């Protein structure tokens, strides 16, 4: 039995000016869910927005307080970042990726969204004729919105049918035109939670070097492939990264998920030293500077977007990174709660006729973590999104992420112990109502 009537959901979309619920953005789905909750008093199972669902890291809070007490708030932060964060970031990357990036090439940004925005600008302007971005989808819809703002073009493909060696041929096909400036993906992946394996990252890195393309690797869910025993500083296994296979990379590292520090909007770019130092005449001509990639990105692009990153928050991030590399903070174990939630939630859906859409990597089943994807029988993603809303469950359609598969993304972050029984009851009713007698 439906909890919310079709008429009430239609009223919500009409009053909130949601033009197409089947392809609604995360923000639009969130507003519809909030509207229905407020109208009825019935709580939703919120699987829409990927906001952290764990307490903020207290070490960061205390470090930020100390920085403010020292008076750092009275001065503008350096565009390139405070030395303490740059140094700790370099050490953090070495500790958990076993990759060498100098402190100079570690640049704080106001969240990874600002980092990707600035990187898109620099990458698409560095070489004349290389002005398109290739998305290995599914992915984060906001990044394509950023390209709309700067007027850059993009191409994309759903990786679902191109895992393993099949990825090589697909990338060759896309890169051979010679107009691709950057490749973008997240690892682990938002929304599918697949992880590119080492053999696939080697392919990406090899072709990025051959075609002179910058790989923008979004590591928002850093070390959250819980199938491996990651999180031990300076000890293998290390998290997977394309940085082992090319010098053309920008790694985006956010504090939002691994330290639950989302409200302070703090991330950093770890840029290959060779890329940072590379000189591009097209950048020099446009910005009237030396055209050195890293310097132009920091001083002529990122500074124009945010004028640096909040100083006190940089000290917080530096402290959390320092304590992680020293083994005081184990952010991997701290965030493993998401895997426990995913396992329980997946089982409820599987018990009630659903299936996992992106269910495998090349050599093993997809892991449990912050996100997972579900489908139901022959429903399209848009149909499933709408139908789940009637039963008090909010999600987003995979179609909005560049996926060609039918289903929705489920986020585990808002799940609480008392909601599992509620979810089970609602999905049992969903399955009963959608099963032919």
In short:
The protein is an alpha/beta fold. It has helices spanning 6-15, 26-40, 58-69, 83-97, 111-125, 141-150, 166-175, 198-210, 273-277, 281-287, 293-306, 311-325, 331-335, 337-350, 381-390, 420-433; strands spanning 45-46, 106-109, 132-137, 153-158, 180-186, 214-218, 249-254, 267-271, 354-356, 371-376, 393-394, 396-397, 408-411.
Account of the protein in words:
The chain contains 16 helices and 13 strands. It is of the alpha/beta class. It has two domains: 6-43 and 336-433, Aspartate Aminotransferase, domain 1; 58-325, Aspartate Aminotransferase, domain 2, CATH 3.40.640. The chain is globular. The two termini are 15 Å apart. The model has no long low-confidence stretch (mean pLDDT 96).
Oligomer: single chain
Mass-distribution shape: globular
Kindly state the percentage of residues in helix. 40-55%
- Major sheet characteristics: 7 strands, mixed
pLDDT < 50 runs, ≥5 residues: none
Decide which structural class fits the backbone: alpha/beta
Portion in strands: 5-15%
Q: What's the number of extended β-strand segments?
A: 13
Number of domains: 2
User: Mind telling me the CATH class of the largest domain?
Assistant: Alpha Beta
Strand order of the largest sheet: 2-8-7-6-5-3-4
Instruction: Examine the coordinates and then state which fold CATH places here, giving the name of the CATH topology of the largest domain.
Output: Aspartate Aminotransferase, domain 2
Number of helices: 16
Mean pLDDT: 96
Rounded radius of gyration (Å): 22 Å
- CATH H-level homologous superfamily name of the largest domain: Type I PLP-dependent aspartate aminotransferase-like (Major domain)
Order of helices and strands: HHEHHEHEHEHEHEEEHHHHHHEEHEEEH
């Amino acid at each position: 039995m439906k909890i919310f009537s079709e008429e009430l959901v239609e009223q919500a979309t009409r009053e909130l000016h949601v033009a197409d619920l089947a392809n609604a953005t995360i923000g639009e789905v969130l507003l519809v869910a909030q509207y229905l909750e407020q109208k009825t008093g019935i709580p939703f199972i919120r699987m829409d927005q990927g906001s952290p669902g764990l307490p903020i890291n207290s070490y960061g809070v205390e470090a930020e307080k100390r920085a403010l007490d020292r008076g750092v708030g009275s001065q503008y932060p350096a565009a390139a970042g405070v030395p303490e964060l740059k140094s700790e970031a370099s050490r953090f990357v070495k500790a958990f990726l076993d990759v060498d990036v100098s402190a100079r090439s570690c640049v704080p940004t106001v969240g990874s969204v600002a980092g990707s925005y600035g990187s898109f600008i620099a990458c698409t302007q560095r070489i004349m004729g290389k002005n398109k971005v290739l998305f290995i989808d599914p992915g984060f819809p906001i990044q394509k919105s950023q390209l709309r703002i700067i007027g850059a073009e993009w191409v994309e493909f759903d990786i679902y049918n191109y895992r393993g060696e099949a990825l090589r041929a697909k990338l060759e096909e896309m890169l051979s035109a010679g107009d691709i400036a950057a490749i973008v993906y997240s690892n682990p992946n938002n929304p599918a939670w697949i992880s590119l394996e080492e053999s696939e990252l080697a392919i990406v890195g090899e072709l990025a070097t051959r075609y002179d393309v910058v790989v923008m690797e979004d590591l928002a869910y850093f070390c959250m492939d819980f199938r491996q025993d990651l999180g031990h500083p300076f000890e293998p296994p290390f998290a997977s990264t394309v940085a082992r296979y090319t010098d053309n990379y920008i790694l985006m590292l956010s504090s939002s998920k691994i330290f639950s520090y989302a409200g302070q909007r703090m991330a950093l770019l770890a840029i290959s030293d060779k890329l940072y130092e590379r000189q591009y005449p097209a950048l020099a001509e446009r910005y009237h500077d030396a055209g050195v990639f890293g310097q132009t990105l920091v001083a002529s692009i990122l500074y124009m977007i945010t004028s640096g990153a909040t100083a006190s928050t940089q000290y917080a991030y530096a402290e959390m990174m320092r304590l992680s590399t020293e083994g005081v903070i184990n952010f991997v174990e701290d965030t493993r709660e998401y895997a426990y939630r995913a396992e329980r939630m997946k089982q409820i859906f599987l018990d009630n006729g659903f299936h996992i859409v992106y269910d495998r990597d090349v050599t093993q089943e997809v892991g449990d973590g912050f996100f997972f994807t579900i489908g139901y029988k022959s429903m399209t993603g848009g149909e499933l999104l709408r139908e789940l809303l009637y039963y008090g469950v909010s999600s987003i359609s995979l179609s909005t992420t560049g996926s060609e598969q039918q289903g929705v993304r489920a986020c585990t972050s808002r799940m609480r112990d008392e909601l599992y029984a509620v979810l089970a009851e609602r999905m049992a009713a969903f399955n009963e109502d959608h099963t032919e007698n």
